[in-house]
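Teaching note: in complex prediction, the entire set of molecules is handled at once rather than each chain in isolation. The prompt given to students was simply: 'Predict the structure of this complex.' The entities are:
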Amino acid sequence: MSIELFQYPYMQRALIGALVIGLAAPALGIYLVQRRLALIGDGVGHVALTGVGAGLLLNRSPVLVAVVAAIIGAVTIELVRARGRTSGDLALALLFYGGIAGGVMLVGLSDSTNANLNAYLFGSLTTISSTDLTTIAVLGAAITVIMLALRPALFAVCHDEEYARVSGLPVRTLNLLLAVTTAVTVTIAMRAVGVLLISALMVVPVATAQQVTRGFRSTMTAAMALGLFAAGGGIFVAANADTAPGASVVLLAIASFLVVAVAGAAWRVLRRRRAPVAAPSPEPHEVVLG
Amino acid sequence: MSTPVISVTHGAVGYDGRPVLRDVSFTVTAGDVVAVLGANGSGKSTLIRAVLGLVPLTAGSVELFGTPQRRFRRWHRIGYVPQRLGAGSGVPATVREVVASGRLARRGVLRPPGAADRAAVAAALDAVGLADRARDPVATLSGGQQQRTLIARALAGQPDLLVLDEPTAGVDAASQEAFATALRGFVAGGGTVLLVAHELGPLRPVINRALVVHQGGIAHDGAVPEPAGHHAEPDHDHVHPHGPDEPVGLWSR
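The expected output is the structure of the full assembly:
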């Protein structure tokens, strides 16, 4: 393995873009996981694809139109969720499949080749222009800063929304902010890992971190570090083994999850053997909602 | 006379057109420690949710500290303790992190926590006897300890009014005692309390007024009713089902 390839500017751009997304995606994703909406990024990505198709068809910047489409999609999903109707599930399904079908149809209607569609479906880090990179870096940094600065409030809203309302927090505004930042993250991550793998970078580092962490802040820090590692390592593997960058990043993130899961389980077994007198078992939890 | 802390006038609540509360009126003044009693399904939880604005009124009005609830903004004066910790979040959170949420009402969304916030969180953890569990994930706590965490969260905001929804339901004896102690401390400091309870248990000496909700109305407002019949036995195990037709006489003297 070597780092020679990173002398080329396109590889440097790929690496920087991946690192920014590797940091920003889990910083946002932790709130989605906390709210048990881990797959929402996937849905928003599907809707963003329609934006890509519309952009290609209208000869506008596909990424820009995708941001708009993704924001509309994410806000719609949030409004459906807030109403709490049982039909929300089906409404989301319609939105997801409508989004991806619309994207495929619109891209087909435009003059662009299939290769172009693949760049958005599976990511195309190595074709990032320096303008793209600036957009990714600025938006990625903004998302990371917002997620860190508003952590207490976003934590409160995602942890216990009713309590947050009684605390007088601007719950609706915070929820919409989360929806919009999800849409923006999805769109910038689209270039890195593609629409079909976006959720992985938002969710897998969080899932890995929370196996060994005890608190929210430590989970967030660890997830961001894991995101950076998977992004950087994935690009390095892709450069040397000539594999698809997006897929390499995601597979490395999942490999980290498996390693931590196995190591964590082994550690717990060892600790139990060493200390046969375990802590008193807590009374059964009652998690039934009144 | 001082401004009432809570004032409900002809309040009514319904879910999907089905009335749950009809024409409810009462006031709570500063220093009151009020227990809302009633059978399951009598509407007692709905009553406090309506007071807090979590459930909309279909008729009537609610005033909090003299301000109509719609225009009320000083939410830091109210500490709310829900029945259970939310649906259980997917991400671990320490006891301290959950309790620290209680400071947001006072601090606002944008200001980072300062020394006063940390001191209030530590004091609230002390008040419920969970200081030694501050760094543990809430999910590893017993049901009673989780309930105490929620009470600490409400206390951390240093409110004037505590509103609690069944704080002692399904809680072990040690936690009930810890909770009663915390509540006594809050009341001694001049706090006002509105709590929903199925059974008062060790809280009984702290309560100075009872509202009995029956079939969507207030059937009794005054002294805490003495338990009657087999309810009076010290070892009475509260396991029988409470139907909506339970006679109101059970609670009256």
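Point out the following to students. Residues 96 and 283 of chain A are 42 Å apart (CA to CA). The radius of gyration of chain A is 20 Å.
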